[in-house]
Amino acid sequence: MPPQLPDARRLALLHALGVQQVWLRRAELDADTLTRLLPTLPGAARGVPQHAASPGEPAPQPPRAARPDARTPPTSVPVCAPTPRQQGPGAGLAATAAGAAARGAGEPSAARLQRIAELDLDQLAEFSRACRACKLGAQRRHAVPGVGHPRARVMVVGEAPGAEEDQRGEPFVGAAGRLLDNMLRAIGLARDAADAEQAVYIANVIKCRPPGNRNPEPDEIAQCAPILRRQIELVQPRLLLALGRFAAQALTGSSEPIGRLRQRVLQHAGIPLVVSYHPAYLLRMPEDKAKSWADLCLAMDTLDKP
Length: 306
Ligand code: URA
Description:
Blueprint: H1 8-17, H2 31-37, H3 92-102, H4 110-118, H5 121-130, H6 136-139, E1 147-148, E2 154-158, H7 163-168, H8 175-186, E3 200-204, H9 218-235, E4 239-243, H10 245-252, H11 258-261, E5 266-268, E6 271-276, H12 279-284, H13 289-304
Parallel strand pairs: 2-3, 2-4, 4-6
Antiparallel strand pairs: 1-3, 5-6
Helix pairs in contact: 3-9, 3-10
The structure holds uracil (URA).
């Protein structure tokens, strides 16, 4: 089922939640609706989106995701424009793990790969919790395997757990996670939705927190990537949404910066893949929420394609 058309009350709620950029998908708009809704949008009176963080939005966090490309300030009225479709690199996680292995970086054993290939989602979670294949296993408090509907239509992929995720064993539960939940809600999706159509499955490339939120190292990526690969295989999402440079590059196998990967429909393992900014980055750079909304619109438009 397509997400609900954002009405004025819903937009006001999103605004209160700190989601100030609501991009309306052109497919859902007629002229009357547009005329009715535009005045309700934050910043619409001035014709430009507002970017200030709302009172409910936490202070900037230490970087979890890499900084994106040079930013251009959004100037348009927040309505999604059609974007060019493009197939992109699809080597993805296999290449990520293989690349690390080629560099001699903690290649997963054949037995590990074989074991992972046999597990279902619950077993993968158990496997992750017991995993000691790299040094992160000894340092974490909780492994963070993933959460969501086992047949979710959309799978969101982040980088690695942060401090709060490590405490709770669930992905994206800190400040960035709250923003992610708000963003997903605005397009009619939720991590706890009972219906697969509205559900997301959320996972990270790396299941254990790198100390001090440092970047994951090649051996850690090599050992962990097969778990995400198996999760994707099991969930069979209709769309992958990679958040942040690390996840985007891991899933595409590309080293292009996020600014060149976003706003394209890429592929991973035959599944359409849309790339956007990491919510932790958006907390630091709220002016880029507009671009992020454009990416979410592209994701939903891709899902709606027959
Ligand atoms: N950042 C991520 O990439 N994943 C999380 O689970 C939390 C923060």
